[in-house]
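RESIDUES AND SHAPES:
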Amino acid sequence: MGRIQRDAYTPDLERSAAYDRLYAEYRTLHDHFGRGGNDVMHRLRALRT
């Protein structure tokens, strides 16, 4: 058994706008590649074989 880590993450409020912009980009990429917005990954995998 490991010890319980009681540390908490506290975001830097001065950088919250940058965090929000990065998260928006992450969501766009996730939806684009992960939810069928683009089949580029399937095409690339097909090229490998």
Observations:
- The chain has a mean pLDDT of 83.
- The two ends are 44 Å apart (CA to CA).
- DSSP finds two helices and no strands in the chain.
- Residues 40 and 46 are 10 Å apart (CA to CA).
